[in-house]
């Protein structure tokens, strides 16, 4: 039995099939569907979550690897200023990449690397947005970084 | 006054749920559904000689395996050819599951239903399909040269051939005009394949209700009403027993307008057969190899022009790659052929296309839908003319512009909706003036020269386009005011992130005079609105926006009439503000719209305090009239449709400044400017978002995206790792300016905006790179290695023609 701690709650998980990724565990077993699957190959960032405060790609992480670690997903944010900033700056359209963008940006703020726009772009460059809301994503992150 | 919301940058109402992770996309539904996976062809062209499932049937958790043989009538026929056209003499579509021949890598052959996707994929791996290999046809020119055929009965792999010609006004044919022109140029252009690549792939989830004998289907589609009709027809179910819902959709960009996808038929069929919930969610590789691509064309161009650069004759021959099937007809090359003309008056025009089959993924519209290719052709032509004559590129364009006083302007062709290509309104000279100001066109040569001195290579490019938007045949809107004062709006077309919940609410709130908080909007749910066409061709705001406005006007008229009775006033003296119907200039003589809704529905039974007012002993009124007057209906609701005579034509112009690295050939966009005219804007913030998104995809098409098929028809870059798309590091800040030339064709004066951003980007970037490098750029996309190779070949071939007239 593996125990996943997600957003402060402990979930016992039967991983008879050890191939289950963290992403599938969250979505299919814990009904935490806010984290999205865009590629399942580690190339789009839609599945970004925090593991012990660091951003990881849930599709490239086996659920079994997360035993005893603290996972934070979009559902675990409590009115984070980034969420509000994303709305005010129109930083998304379809919203499918948004959970990943926000989780990535939350981690970026924690990493203290959101200095300039170029930095924000560089450190958000693992998150694809096919709706192309990039300028506004940068604007939203910049605003929260300034006020942090 | 808080209810005038049309035109305001209102924040989106869909956002709260999306930033909290509470969106409900297809794969977020149906937690208990069985999962589907497919065995798909690993070969581009082969005959299936056997399917062996022996190794697979013991896998625990397997529920069912289906091949073509198992499919019932209806489901086993080829999929529909959605848009027939007389020129499409050899249209071909696929089967839901391949019957005997597979014609591209990724074609579905076996459907597996299992307890979860892991198990379903395990089963797929154990199924052995044997093949007899057939010769794959890859590459447009190979396809035309033969001898190999994609479809045995399609000679030369030509699915369609079409010629359209607009002769010179003196009656001469285009080729004659070109032959007699003072100057002529002839060249070839190449455009690569790309694809929509929404972040959420396709997906279908179906539940069969055995007691009710009804089917509910959720699909990540751009057209739920059409999926519904297709499912009902294919499965032989009465239409009222099928409902289709598009939940939150994670991007579409065209690929989800195609229907029915094999999976949209197979999943509901299996759900009914098994009497279980069944769901299929496309994975990324499946999206690459089994949905749809677009863009690939080879164009041969001849142009004749005068000393001013005015085009006297333009002759374009297009080879259009249609992939293995033509479910969406020849809409894409028709759009290329017609929209190529852009904002220009072309003296005479001949366009001929061959739509060609290859053993690759089928081609259907991707945002822009044939326009980027047409605009690439026309704008490269303009640049070449300017180059040849030693003129400024914007001057040559201006010399060809349709003038503001020439609208409506008839291009004398037939557009993609089967209607005449008549531009309704626009102001192209003003757009160009704004664009030149925005980017600093006239100051650029000095900047370029300055940079040259430091060894930096800068270039500027420009591109103009006209986009037919809001194509028919129609959309509808339903508006209901309930007795709590809420306004419920529904329309049949779907949403994929455009913000329809917001703009349609803005329209309804403005029309009805109610606070936007009172308005809710539902799209793409056949339970709420059964008649619709779908979301494509930048049509949603124009079509449903106007339909909703018209429905609101009906509701308002009724509300004023009922209120006039209650207030003993003349309806003409009434107005609705903030949800209160009141006498103009006398706000105290008023009645809430909620109460009007109560009064609109004469009741026998009271179920709450409000309802009491409408019961039979409470209402006054004449004893000689029936409670529901003749010709009236109970309830405060209205429905209307908007069906335009023809499309409305938006336009825009882009310019970019790029820098190319003299050593690495890296291409960097330093500035990107857009001037855009989509008529009256409902919400400028959302228009801006659409432009940003379009430009980002355009930059992808110009610099990065291509489908790397090898000679065997294997797609070598079928993943996000290998198919390069722009990330935040690749997209510059986009500077925008707007022009609002209202459309005279619809009550709101609006034009579509969804596709605009993507259309001219390849042309703009090609022009800018050419300007920076002084070498000819006729193939898109252009990568650093392409540019590097171009530099080499232009050095060795001594191709210096471009240097001739540059300042
Ligand atoms: S789904 Fe994990 S990176 Fe794309
Ligand atoms: S908002 Fe649609 S992919 Fe980013």
UniProtKB/TrEMBL annotation, chain A:
GO molecular function: 2 iron, 2 sulfur cluster binding; metal ion binding; oxidoreductase activity, acting on the aldehyde or oxo group of donors
All copies of domain 2Fe-2S ferredoxin-type, residue ranges: 1-77
Recorded coiled-coil stretches: none
Keyword Transport: no
Pfam family, one: Fer2_2
Pathways involved: Alkaloid degradation; nicotine degradation
Annotated InterPro entries: 2Fe-2S-bd (IPR002888), 2Fe-2S-bd_dom_sf (IPR036884), 2Fe-2S_ferredoxin-like_sf (IPR036010), 2Fe-2S_ferredoxin-type (IPR001041), 2Fe2S_fd_BS (IPR006058), Aldehyde_Oxdr_Iron-Sulfur (IPR052914), Beta-grasp_dom_sf (IPR012675)
UniProtKB keywords: 2Fe-2S, Iron, Iron-sulfur, Metal-binding, Oxidoreductase
Protein name listed in UniProt: (2Fe-2S)-binding protein
Organism for this UniProt entry: Herbidospora galbida
From TrEMBL, chain B:
Domain of life: Bacteria
GO molecular function annotation: iron ion binding; oxidoreductase activity
Alphabetic keyword roster: Molybdenum, Oxidoreductase
InterPro entries per record: Ald_Oxase/Xan_DH_a/b (IPR000674), Ald_Oxase/Xan_DH_a/b_sf (IPR036856), Ald_Oxase/xanthine_DH-like (IPR016208), AldOxase/xan_DH_MoCoBD1 (IPR008274), AldOxase/xan_DH_MoCoBD2 (IPR046867), AldOxase/xan_DH_Mopterin-bd_sf (IPR037165)
One Pfam entry name: Ald_Xan_dh_C
Domain Aldehyde oxidase/xanthine dehydrogenase a/b hammerhead, residue spans: 20-135
Name of protein: Xanthine dehydrogenase family protein
């Amino acid at each position: 039995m593996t125990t996943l701690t997600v957003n402060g709650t402990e979930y016992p998980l039967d991983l008879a099939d050890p191939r289950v990724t963290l992403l599938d565990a969250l979505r299919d077993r814990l009904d935490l569907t806010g984290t999205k699957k865009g590629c399942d190959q580690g190339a789009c960032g839609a599945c970004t979550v925090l593991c012990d405060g660091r951003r990881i790609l849930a599709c490239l992480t086996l659920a079994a690897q997360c035993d005893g670690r603290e996972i934070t997903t979009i559902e675990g944010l409590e009115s984070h200023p980034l969420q509000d900033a994303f709305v005010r700056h129109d930083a998304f359209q379809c919203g499918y990449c948004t959970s990943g963008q926000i989780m990535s940006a939350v981690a970026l703020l924690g990493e203290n690397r959101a200095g300039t726009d170029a930095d924000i772009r560089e450190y958000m460059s693992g998150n694809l947005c096919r709706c192309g809301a990039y300028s506004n994503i940068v604007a939203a992150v910049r605003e929260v970084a300034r006020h942090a | 006054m808080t209810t005038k919301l049309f035109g305001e940058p209102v924040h989106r109402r869909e956002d709260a749920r999306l930033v909290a992770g509470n969106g409900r996309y297809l794969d977020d539904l149906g937690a208990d559904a069985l999962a589907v996976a497919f065995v798909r062809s690993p070969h581009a062209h082969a005959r299936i000689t056997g399917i062996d499932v022996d190794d697979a049937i013991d896998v625990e958790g397997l529920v069912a395996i289906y091949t073509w043989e198992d499919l019932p009538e209806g489901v086993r026929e080829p999929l529909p050819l959605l848009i027939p056209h007389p020129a499409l003499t050899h249209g071909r579509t696929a089967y839901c599951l391949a019957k005997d021949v597979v014609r591209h890598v990724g074609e579905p052959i076996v459907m597996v239903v299992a307890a979860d996707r892991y198990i379903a994929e395990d089963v797929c791996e154990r199924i052995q399909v044997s093949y007899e290999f057939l010769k794959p046809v890859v590459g447009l020119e190979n396809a035309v040269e033969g001898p190999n055929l994609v479809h045995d009965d399609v000679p030369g792999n030509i699915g369609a051939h079409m010629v359209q010609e607009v002769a010179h006004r003196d009656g001469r044919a285009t080729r004659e005009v070109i032959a007699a022109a003072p100057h002529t140029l002839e060249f070839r252009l190449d455009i690569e394949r790309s694809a929509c690549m929404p972040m959420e792939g396709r997906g279908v989830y179906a539940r069969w209700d055995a007691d009710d004998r009804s089917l509910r289907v959720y699909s990540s589609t751009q057209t739920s009403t059409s999926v519904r009709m297709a499912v009902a027809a294919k499965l032989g179910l009465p239409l009222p027993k099928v409902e289709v819902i598009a939940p939150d959709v994670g991007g579409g960009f065209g690929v989800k307008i195609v229907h029915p996808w094999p999976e949209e038929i197979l999943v509901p069929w299996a759900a009914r057969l098994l009497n279980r919930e069944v769901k299929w969610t496309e994975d990324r590789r499946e999206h690459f190899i089994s949905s749809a691509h677009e863009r690939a064309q080879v164009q041969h161009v001849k142009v004749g022009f005068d000393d001013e650069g005015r085009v006297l004759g333009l002759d374009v021959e297009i080879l259009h790659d249609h992939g293995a099937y033509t479910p969406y007809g020849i809409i894409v090359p028709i759009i290329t052929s017609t929209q190529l003309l852009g904002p220009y008056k072309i003296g005479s025009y001949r366009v001929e296309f061959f739509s060609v089959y290859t053993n690759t993924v089928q081609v259907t519209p991707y945002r822009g839908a044939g326009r980027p290719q047409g605009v690439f052709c026309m704008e490269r032509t303009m640049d070449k003319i300017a180059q040849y004559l030693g003129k400024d590129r914007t001057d040559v364009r201006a010399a060809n512009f349709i003038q503001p006083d020439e609208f409506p302007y008839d291009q004398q062709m037939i557009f993609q909706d089967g209607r005449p290509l008549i531009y309704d309104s626009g102001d192209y000279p003003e757009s160009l003036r704004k664009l030149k100001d925005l980017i600093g066109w006239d100051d650029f040569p000095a900047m370029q020269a300055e940079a040259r001195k430091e060894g930096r290579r800068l270039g500027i490019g420009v591109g103009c386009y006209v986009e037919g938007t809001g194509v028919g045949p129609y959309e509808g809107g339903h508006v209901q005011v309930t007795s709590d004062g809420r306004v419920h709006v529904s329309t049949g077309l779907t949403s994929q992130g455009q913000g329809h919940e917001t703009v349609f609410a803005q329209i309804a709130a403005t029309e009805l005079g109610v606070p936007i908080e009172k308005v809710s909007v539902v799209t793409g749910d056949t339970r709420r609105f059964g008649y619709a066409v779908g979301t494509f061709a930048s049509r949603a705001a124009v079509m449903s926006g106007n339909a909703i406005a018209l429905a609101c006007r009906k509701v308002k008229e009724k509300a004023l009439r009922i209120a006039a009775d209650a207030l003993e006033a003349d309806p003409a003296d009434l107005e609705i503000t903030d949800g209160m119907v009141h006498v103009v200039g006398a706000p105290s003589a008023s009645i809430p719209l909620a109460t009007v809704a109560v009064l609109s529905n004469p009741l026998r039974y009271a179920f709450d305090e409000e309802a009491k007012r409408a019961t039979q002993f409470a209402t006054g009124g004449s004893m000689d009239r029936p409670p529901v007057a003749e010709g009236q209906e109970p309830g405060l609701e209205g429905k209307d449709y908007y069906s335009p005579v023809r499309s409305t034509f938006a336009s825009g112009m882009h310019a970019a400044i790029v820098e190319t690295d003299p050593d690495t050939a890296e291409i960097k966009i330093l500035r990107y400017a857009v001037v855009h005219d989509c008529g009256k804007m409902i919400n400028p913030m959302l228009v801006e978002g659409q432009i940003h998104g379009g430009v980002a995809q355009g930059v992808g098409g110009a610099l990065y995206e291509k489908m790397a098929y090898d000679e065997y028809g294997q797609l070598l870059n079928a993943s996000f790792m290998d198919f390069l798309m722009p990330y935040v590091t690749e997209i510059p800040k986009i500077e925008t300016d707007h022009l609002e030339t209202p459309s005279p064709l619809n009550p709101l004066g609006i034009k579509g905006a969804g596709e605009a951003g993507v259309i001219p980007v390849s042309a703009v970037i090609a022009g800018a790179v050419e300007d920076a490098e002084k070498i000819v750029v006729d193939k898109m996309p252009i990568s650093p290695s392409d540019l590097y190779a171009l530099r080499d070949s232009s050095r060795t071939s001594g191709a210096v023609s471009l240097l001739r007239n540059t300042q």
